């Protein structure tokens, strides 16, 4: 146990630590105070990131006490957007291993290798191939910080106990030739294999993970879009698994839409929704909106007709020959165009969602055109990190005369326009996946389904206070994230029990049980 100066006199005596620590015996709060001082003295967030990761290795309790002392400040440092820089430079800033590093050449031995992990009761694995990290594309082994950071948010945002969390980078190779040529790159210097071979590798991994850690929940994160969609379909009925970029992102986008429509007093079934970007996030959000619209009485066909996708090849319409199976259901009879403004003119969207990774794609023309036919445009430039956002909140407010309801994937500062202050929301999946984790831990369902994510979306939306809605805020405030996610987890757990999907006995007080599972940093 690494408590540092918090070891008591008795512990120091019995553990042979006398003389090995400074004289003062300190509380956790005092230690946090010192850490905050160190962080304040660092020149930038990437240095804070490195410092905090070192702290998580040397004193996990102090790490979580620090991050949880001010989540609104520290989540953007341990996670997006700072983690993007950490990923880009991972081979260079690497200090020591965290979690596990598996590669495709271990395929026949995954079980044996996973048994090297010192903890036997692993409840959640977050696994990435690095094939599509944030909006940064394929960066292979440089994506290793992502599963680490995501699992840290399980604890920091929802109180999921950290001992049962295992981050894994599963190295299948990378298409990124520049990284393969970097002397300090830490991964395999190989091209990834064909999809069939990827499936065989991941099949072996899933089998081994479930054999070594029975009942483990596997969270897929930042795989290449095609792999993400295919692997989720392959495993969703066979294992306890979910894909955060498909289901978590969809859920948080839906949460923002639900709040925005409550503010507007409009029904989801009446919206016209245009996506810029048609990868796994875009089609994942679109599919979840279809489910939610069906819940409001539309047929599947009617719901799909209200959604249009636009990608690098232009507007997705019936004549396009390059569409994959996830995109085809959204190909309607539109006039072909490669111009987003033109697409906005045709579709007259009430909701515009950016998942394109093209910074600045929502130009003044796009936004003003939208505002011409929509009184309160809902605009979500979700791409990350910051410079990939399709527009800034400031631009969206300015070009719509302050009418837009805006949420981005990364945090942006408040905007003051004509004496009014606007608070752009942060539509990040960290509102969702930690709460799903907590609900899964409490109910132990056999499978995870979309209905759980829809419930998480509604629970998140319901927690935005009226005062905050009046300011155009679409998400609950982050300083209270732990309480928010416990409430979300309770709602999701209730629905899991109600639908008969739990494998544990129904609890009388679900909230109290969720709280009793919850980790609080302390010695
Ligand atoms: O990590 C985030 O902030 C959102 C996300 O899952 C991604 O961009 O892949
Ligand atoms: Mg992701």
From TrEMBL:
Organism classification: Bacteria, Pseudomonadati, Pseudomonadota, Alphaproteobacteria, Hyphomicrobiales
CDD domains: NAD_bind_1_malic_enz
Name the UniProt record assigns to this protein: NAD-dependent malic enzyme
Endpoints of the signal sequence: none
Entry keyword set: Metal-binding, Oxidoreductase
Any Pfam family: malic
Originating organism: Methylorubrum rhodesianum
Family according to the record: Belongs to the malic enzymes family.
Domain Malic enzyme N-terminal residues, every copy: 56-236
Keyword Transmembrane helix: no
InterPro entries according to UniProt: Aminoacid_DH-like_N_sf, Malic_N_dom, Malic_N_dom_sf, Malic_NAD-bd, Malic_OxRdtase, NAD(P)-bd_dom_sf
Entries under SUPFAM superfamilies matching the protein: Aminoacid dehydrogenase-like, N-terminal domain, NAD(P)-binding Rossmann-fold domains
Highest taxon listed in the record's lineage: Bacteria
Domain Malic enzyme NAD-binding: start-end pairs: 246-497
Keyword field contains Lipid biosynthesis: no
Stretches of the chain forming a coiled coil according to its record: none
């Amino acid at each position: 146990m690494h408590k540092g100066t918090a070891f008591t006199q008795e512990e120091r005596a019995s553990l042979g630590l006398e003389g090995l620590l400074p004289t003062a015996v300190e509380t956790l709060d005092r230690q946090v105070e010192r850490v905050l001082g160190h962080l304040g003295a660092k020149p930038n967030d990437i240095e804070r990131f490195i410092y905090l990761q070192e702290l998580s290795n040397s004193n996990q309790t102090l790490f979580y006490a620090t991050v949880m002392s001010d989540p609104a400040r520290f989540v953007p440092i341990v996670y997006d957007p700072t983690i993007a820089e950490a990923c880009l430079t991972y081979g260079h800033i690497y200090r020591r291993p965290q979690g596990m590093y598996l590669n495709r050449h271990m395929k026949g031995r995954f079980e044996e290798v996973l048994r090297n992990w010192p903890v036997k009761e692993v409840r959640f694995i977050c696994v990435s191939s690095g094939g599509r990290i944030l909006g940064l594309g394929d960066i292979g082994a440089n994506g290793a910080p992502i599963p680490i950071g995501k699992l840290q948010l399980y604890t920091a945002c929802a109180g999921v106990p950290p001992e049962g969390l295992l981050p894994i980078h599963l190295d299948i190779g990378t298409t990124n030739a520049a990284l393969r040529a970097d002397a300090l790159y830490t991964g395999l210097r190989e091209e990834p294999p064909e999809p069939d071979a990827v499936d065989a590798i991941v099949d072996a991994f899933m089998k081994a993970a479930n054999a070594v850690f029975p009942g483990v929940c596997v969270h897929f994160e930042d795989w290449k879009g095609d792999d993400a969609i295919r692997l989720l379909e392959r495993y969703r009925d066979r294992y306890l698994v979910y894909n955060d970029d498909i289901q978590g992102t969809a859920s948080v986008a839906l949460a923002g839409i639900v709040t925005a429509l409550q503010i507007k007093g409009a029904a989801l079934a009446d919206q016209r929704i245009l996506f810029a970007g048609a990868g796994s996030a875009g089609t994942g959000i679109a599919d979840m909106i279809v489910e939610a619209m069906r819940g409001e009485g539309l047929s599947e066909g009617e719901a799909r007709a209200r959604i249009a996708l636009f990608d690098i090849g232009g507007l997705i319409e019936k004549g396009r020959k390059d569409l994959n199976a996830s995109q085809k259901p959204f190909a309607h009879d539109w006039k072909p165009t490669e111009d987003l403004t033109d697409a906005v003119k045709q579709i007259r969207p009430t909701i515009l969602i950016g998942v394109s990774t093209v910074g600045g794609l929502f130009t003044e023309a796009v936004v003003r055109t939208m505002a011409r036919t929509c009184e309160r445009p809902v605009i979500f430039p979700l791409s990350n990190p910051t410079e990939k956002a399709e527009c800034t909140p400031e631009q969206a407010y300015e070009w719509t005369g302050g009418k837009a309801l805006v949420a981005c994937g990364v945090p942006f500062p408040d905007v003051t326009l004509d004496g009014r202050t606007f608070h752009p929301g942060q539509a990040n999946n960290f509102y969702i996946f930690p709460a799903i984790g907590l609900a899964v831990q409490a109910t132990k369902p056999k499978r995870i389904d979309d209905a759980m994510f829809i419930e998480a979306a509604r629970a998140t939306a319901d927690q935005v206070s009226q005062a905050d809605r009046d300011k155009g805020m679409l998400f609950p405030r982050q300083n209270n994230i732990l309480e928010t996610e416990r409430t979300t987890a309770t709602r999701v757990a209730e629905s899991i029990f109600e639908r008969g999907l739990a494998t544990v006995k129904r609890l009388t007080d679900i909230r109290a049980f969720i709280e009793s599972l919850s980790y609080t940093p302390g010695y």
